[in-house]
């Protein structure tokens, strides 16, 4: 039986901040209704510690996540590709839905500066879930 779940790929430059938060929120809020992956055009060595701390404040542990390199296969396997400041590094394939979320880069910032970025990502992910699944995200997690 073919996979009927929507597949979403979040892409940013280092896969250490924005795309990690977006993937974690989508996984946490949508559960098994969506397949989620994230990647970076130039992955960092580790996820930004301020991002890990900001997500922990929301009860989401991403401390074990590792930045991953963007591959053509990941883009081809995805129905929706959401970029966050990676420029033209993401390959374009017909039939895919592409969005670019203009969000500040949390690189080099403390947790106080990451919180508004995290909150903006969460709001966008909740809207994406509603769009992809026609069902509201779990609002009890707030």
Q: Please, could you describe this protein's structure?
A:
By secondary structure, the chain is an alpha/beta fold. It contains four helices and four strands; from the N terminus they run βαβααββα. The longest helix is centred in the last third of the chain and has 23 residues. The radius of gyration is 14 Å and the shape is globular. The mean pLDDT is 89.
Q: Which helices and strands appear, and what pairs or packs with what?
A:
Elements: E1 7-12, H1 18-30, E2 35-40, H2 49-56, H3 72-77, E3 80-83, E4 97-100, H4 111-133
Parallel strand pairs: 1-2, 1-3, 3-4
Helix pairs in contact: 1-4, 2-4
Strand content: 5-15%
Quaternary arrangement of the chains shown?
single chain
Q: Work out the helix count.
A: 4
Distance between the termini: 35 Å
What is the CA-atom radius of gyration, in angstroms? 14 Å
Name the structural class.
alpha/beta
Global mean pLDDT: 89
Q: Which geometry do the CA atoms define?
A: globular
Low-confidence stretches: none
Number of strands: 4
Can you give the helix content as a percent range? 25-40%
Main sheet?
A: 4 strands, parallel
Spatial strand arrangement across the major sheet: 2-1-3-4
What's the helix-strand series?
Answer: EHEHHEEH
């Amino acid at each position: 039986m073919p996979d009927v779940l929507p597949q979403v790929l979040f892409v940013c430059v280092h896969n250490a901040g924005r795309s990690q938060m977006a993937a974690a929120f989508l996984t946490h809020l949508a559960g098994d209704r969506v397949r989620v992956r994230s990647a970076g055009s130039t992955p960092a060595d580790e996820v930004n510690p301020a991002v890990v701390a900001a997500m922990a404040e929301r009860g989401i542990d991403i401390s074990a996540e590792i930045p991953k390199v963007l591959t053509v296969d990941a883009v081809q396997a995805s129905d929706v590709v959401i970029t966050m400041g990676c420029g033209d590094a993401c390959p374009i394939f017909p039939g895919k839905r592409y969005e670019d979320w203009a969000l500040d880069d949390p690189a080099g910032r403390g947790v106080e500066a990451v919180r508004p970025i995290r909150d903006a990502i969460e709001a966008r992910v909740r809207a994406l879930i509603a769009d992809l699944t026609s069902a509201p995200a779990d609002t009890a997690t707030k």
